[in-house]
């Protein structure tokens, strides 16, 4: 494995290796000295063309815990805003000798393009509405830690599937790892190509909940919506929001996930967000271990 561009590229064995490595590296987080010398002398560049506090910080902490040198390149105030192309930026990074480039970009496919231009490893931290592989991996890791397995689990991914890169990455990865996925959304928030995805589709959340082990709520991405996809926030919450009553319809040990940031009161009620069955805080902590695992496997050599 040289790059991590899509969860669809991972074999089952590769995915399991990443999760197992993350489990080992998670123990580092419990020590008083949280650093390993593994990537000393390696340079990781965080190349973010879109704002992302959570993912960028997570990658930065992960790289630093492995003793890598980290360069944060925010495209907002840089030569990119002066019109420099992705290719020119890539050539600049190449000249600096970056061993790994973590990229988030608004255009689907940007990470694939970058991988063709640099010698280092490219990690896709979200490209457009296409993919977000490390989010799917940390989600799978969180489920496995909580429920002990992924094989045979029933997972519902709920909400704004159309604008979500998390949904696509999760469907591909969870299917590879033996889970059964159902997408639940209003028809207006499903991609046209959804029939080609390896999962089921439902428009009725209440019908799906009683037979679901994991519910992944998605953020409604208002910033990507340039038309009205549903009548009102209240209407959306009534059909697709997660509240206490819906939590009670799920099996007792079922969990609720959210990639963050949560819009409380819209896709998830405060009661559910603060419930012990909600894994949002764990997902953030697990994100560091998982991203350490990916950096280690891509850049560590052995």
Automatic annotation (TrEMBL):
Domain of life: Bacteria
Transcription listed as a keyword: no
SUPFAM superfamilies: Aspartate/ornithine carbamoyltransferase
Matching Pfam families: OTCace, OTCace_N
Record-linked Gene3D superfamilies: Aspartate/ornithine carbamoyltransferase
A GO molecular function held by the record: amino acid binding
GO biological process: 'de novo' pyrimidine nucleobase biosynthetic process; 'de novo' UMP biosynthetic process; amino acid metabolic process
Catalytic reaction equation(s): carbamoyl phosphate + L-aspartate = N-carbamoyl-L-aspartate + phosphate + H(+)
Chain ranges of the Aspartate/ornithine carbamoyltransferase Asp/Orn-binding domain: 151-298
GO cellular-component term (any): cytosol
EC number: 2.1.3.2
Binding site for carbamoyl phosphate: 54-55, 104, 132, 135, 260-261
Enzyme class: transferase
Metabolic or biological pathway, per its Swiss-Prot or TrEMBL entry: Pyrimidine metabolism; UMP biosynthesis via de novo pathway; (S)-dihydroorotate from bicarbonate: step 2/3
UniProt binding sites for L-aspartate: 82, 165, 219
Domain annotation Aspartate/ornithine carbamoyltransferase carbamoyl-P binding: ranges: 2-144
Function: Catalyzes the condensation of carbamoyl phosphate and aspartate to form carbamoyl aspartate and inorganic phosphate, the committed step in the de novo pyrimidine nucleotide biosynthesis pathway.
Subunit structure: Heterododecamer (2C3:3R2) of six catalytic PyrB chains organized as two trimers (C3), and six regulatory PyrI chains organized as three dimers (R2).
Family named by the database record: Belongs to the aspartate/ornithine carbamoyltransferase superfamily. ATCase family.
Protein name: Aspartate carbamoyltransferase
């Amino acid at each position: 494995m040289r790059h991590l561009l899509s969860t669809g590229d991972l074999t089952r064995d590769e995915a399991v290796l990443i999760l197992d490595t993350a489990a080992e590296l998670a123990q580092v987080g419990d020590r008083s000295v949280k650093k390993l010398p593994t990537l000393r002398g390696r340079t990781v560049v965080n190349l973010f063309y879109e704002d992302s506090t959570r993912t960028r910080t997570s990658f930065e902490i992960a790289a630093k815990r492995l003793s890598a040198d980290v360069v944060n390149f925010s495209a907002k105030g840089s030569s990119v805003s002066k019109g420099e192309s992705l290719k020119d930026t890539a050539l600049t990074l190449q000249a600096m000798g970056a061993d790994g480039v973590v990229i988030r970009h608004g255009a689907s496919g940007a990470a694939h393009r970058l991988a063709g231009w640099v010698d280092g490893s490219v990690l896709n931290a979200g490209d457009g509405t296409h993919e977000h592989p490390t989010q799917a991996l940390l989600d799978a890791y969180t489920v496995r830690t909580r429920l002990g397995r992924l094989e045979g689990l029933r997972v519902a991914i709920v909400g704004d599937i159309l604008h979500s890169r998390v949904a696509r990455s999760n469907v591909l990865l969870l299917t590879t790892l033996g889970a059964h996925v159902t997408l639940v959304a209003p028809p207006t928030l499903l991609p046209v190509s959804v029939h080609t995805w390896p999962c089921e589709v439902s428009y009725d959340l209440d019908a799906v909940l009683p037979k679901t082990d994991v519910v992944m709520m998605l953020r409604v991405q208002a910033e990507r919506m340039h038309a009205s996809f549903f009548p009102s926030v209240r209407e959306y919450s009534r059909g697709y929001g997660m509240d206490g009553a819906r939590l009670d319809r799920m099996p007792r040990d079922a969990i609720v996930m959210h990639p963050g940031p949560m819009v409380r009161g819209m896709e998830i009620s405060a009661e559910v967000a603060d419930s012990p069955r909600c894994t949002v805080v764990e997902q953030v902590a697990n994100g560091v271990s998982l991203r350490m695992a990916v950096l280690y496997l891509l850049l560590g050599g052995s």
